[in-house]
Fold these 3 entries.
Entry 1:
Amino acid sequence: MRIVYIINSLNGGGAERPLPDIVAQMRARGHDVHVLALARKAGNAVAWLKDAGIVHDILSPHPEKFASLRTTLAAVRRHAPDLIWTSLTRATLYGQMAGIVLRRPVVSWQHNAYLRPWNRRILHATHRLTDLWVADSRFVAKCTARQLNVPERDVITWPLFTAQAHMPQAAPWAGPGNGRGVFRLGTLGRLEAQKNYGLLIQTMACLRDHAPHCRIHLDIGGEGSLAPQLQEQITALGLDNITLSGFQADPFAYCAGLHGYVQPSLFEGLCIALHEAMQAGVPSIVTPVGAMADVVRDGETGLFLDPPTPERLASLLLRLYDNPALCARMGAAARQQVLSSYNLNAITAQARAVMERAEQLVATQAGAVRAGTSPLTPIR
């Protein structure tokens, strides 16, 4: 098949990071894939696509502006796809329109358990224009069926993380020792309200004021609109135990440099960064939202931040800081869990099931054309 894969941007977030693995699975079945990005944004994902040899076009000349529907339709028509695949709401709406105009089946990702009210309403109205919905986790699959009123048979799961045993592992926390040891705490994500990073800053202030013996340094890796606001908050509180380190091109190396990982998100989908930290053997502290509630086993592979307050998070961090044996045990269990649940064979089997459904959509439509019951000729 010729697949056109439409995505909002090549910013470098959770929808773009797994693109090389997704396309590799499609190529393994003999399909040709061309990625169309509606905008460049930060462009952090461009290098990943180039390294994987993925052909792609950025449809908007302005980095921050999305291409128009008209421009997108023209680009899709030029590539004459057998199948249109979409990722994120704007790209899905454009892809659905292209599916109507070109009379091609449409497959659409859902990456998050939460949709903005307007996005939820409009996708609820247009959900029938997508022939197959693909969720990045079982939790998101359930949310998609409920929020968009999509029949469960039309939602299938393809986890967007593949565990790799050869990736670097973190050195377990050995304890503060003679007072010079520093517990390296980290998190990865877009600097947006969803990630709730202001809570982390409040927590670090709480630790400084109430546990001065505790040497924990927090690194927040990522870019986003809230970067200036978060830096202002850090400066106003006079904190020297937090670093905003920006986008991390190599999340595996980043996670391998940590002693603990924290994700205080208000809502999530699969949360790839959490899986990367667990793969590195790092114990985690997460809010039990989205798929994180299913992935982390409270007290075994990580700890649940519930309720999500600075005081609660400070107590959980002190629990890890004061107990290196617990950190080592949780980290080892976390690594074993993701290597078992997200190994290449398991993910390939789920990807195969999705691709077989997509291939059947194309075959069914082609059969209808041959029978003369469904014209496939694009609308001019």
Entry 2:
Amino acid sequence: MDTGRFRVPAGAVDWAIAVCVAALLLGTGLSGPHPAGERALLGSVLLAAGGLTLVAHRRAPIAVLVVTGLCAVGYEAAGFDVLAVSYLVAVYGAVRSGHRTLAVAASVSVLVVLPLVALVFSDGSAREAFAQARNVLEIAWLVAAFATGEALRQAERRADEAERTREETARHRADEERLHIARELHDSLTHQISIIKVQSEVAVHVARRRGEQVPGTLLAIQAAGREATRELRATLEALRDDGTTPPQGLEHLPGLVERARSMGLDATLTVEGQQHDVPATVGRTAYRIVQEALTNTARHACATTATVRIEYGPGTLSVQVDDDGKAAPDDAPAPGLGLLGMRERVSALGGRLRAGPRTGHGFTVQAELPVERAS
């Protein structure tokens, strides 16, 4: 059951505590022996002020501690013999927030000042003055408030440490899983891709030594093998490092377009708009979209040209890849992992993706990536 919707705001709780303490102090002070006239009015104001000050005990615990202590001294001087409940709550709040030394220093000061004030403003004997000061602030209640605040502070600290430990354990497990995936990829793919790359390069070398024309498909296999080796190496490095290695992004697009040209595709890159820095996740997503689109164009579209357009907007980055392949307007895009991966990447950033045949013939991939949201 979700109880988050019924949680009482902290501000409302603070106001409730402050009003209740103020009412308790006023009720206790006015129901017992108390002075009359202006001293009664002054004491009542100080009683109420001491309680209402507690509304700020979370935001300014030291200030509340000082104000409630002064109010306790003030209404004792005015003739009210009331336990300083507001000061006890302030001591609890200060200790819970970590200000133990200041809470001890302030409490010692109040314990020293209260008997002196009672001696000055009371008409009774010294024993009666000390008894009155003890009634305003008893050491036992003060120790209890201090101990309660310290106990809750320690409990919260242990809870925070436990939360950090859980997060560190989760990160450690994620690192282990990432390294396991890297080892599996290395063992299962690196060897096979290396064989394809070496065999294609040997075949190209032998054909050229014999003076034979190298088939375009063989050159494409050679280029694809080199690209797959680079991609696999980059993937393994990303899995093995701690995230500090700069990812492939917009600055790597010219090299990506150049490799597409080496595979026989007349590819061009156009950048429009006022260039500005974009988050690494946006740049990486744009790179992967262009990479997947150019790969699909070279492998499946039977295209001769491809245009890549990057447009910087005020809060967006637009990516568009067009080709002149065989796709017709009535053709439905063939479902595949490439398009699915692009959609997942764009959706994760809150962007939009459109992939489908162009008017006339050819295929287009358009993505709009929000820059501000991704950052």
Entry 3:
Amino acid sequence: MRPDPSDPREAEGVLNPATAWGPDGRLHLYPRLVAEGNISRVGIAEVEVTGGVPTGVTRRGVVLEADRAWERGTGHGGVEDPRITWIPSLDTHVMTYVAFGPLGPKPALAISKDGQDWTRLGPLQFAYEDALDTDLNLFPNKDVVFFPEVVPGPDGVPSYALLHRPMWDFSFVRPEEQPPLPAGVTDDRASVWISYIPAEDVVEDIRALVRPGGHRFVAGPEFEWEALKIGAGPAPLRIDEGWLVLHHGVTGTVVGGAFVPQNNVEYVAGALLLDAEDPSKVIARSSQPMLVPETEEETEGTVANVVFPTAIEKIEGAHYVFYGMADSAIGVARLSRVDA
């Protein structure tokens, strides 16, 4: 998918999509549409499949706009980078997205039964835990995605779980302030965390999904290709060995702050494998990236040298990864198992 030059809502790119299957058996793409001034909406398009391979889209409109006051600020705003997880036990699509509001990027949720009409549950409110010695709600947070199944939570409690990436960075609102890192955290690079909501709380009231607790560190930068930061991509995929999590790794130099488009960074994609019985535990990870910027669409754009995976779908027996290309377009790659 490339921007439609006749649509001002796409003037600065289409990127970082979510996906979901509709009740009619059609696959839908939910791209971030970026208008002039870096104002984002979440669109909807039907995926065209040729010979079992996604080859294009038919646009169907917009499902979410920054039409709430907390989703926009003075001179900025938008609803950005949706991820969608279909959770069968809830019979619900759960969309996470970034609300670029008055205090910077904050994660939020919306839900839908059919993938067409979405109801906001509001911004995430991370439960306060005194042992952390900080409040996660102080910080910007991105790359939030739910697991599709109930998993064992802290103390084995059946829980819905989400990955997220707190950013220990106040530069958007208080650039001179030193962020209070959680207890035991000495590396301030953005990393993947996990939080949980007891399943019985969600069954009683689905709005409990916005109140996660039991926060745990999962994984931080480890290899050279992820030296600057990492973040989760699509919803975790259950495989025989555990939970497969595609993630992006970033290298380069940030200029002018983390909240403005960068031209001196590179985004590549790798994978984490999380334990099925304790998804806060990494049991394996890729030492080399699995996808790197190579094509013209990936190496030239609003932010050059970016591949940013955000969705995985199984189509006619094969898994396909949908990803942002240089913050300008959307590509697809086949995900295959390679036996050693």
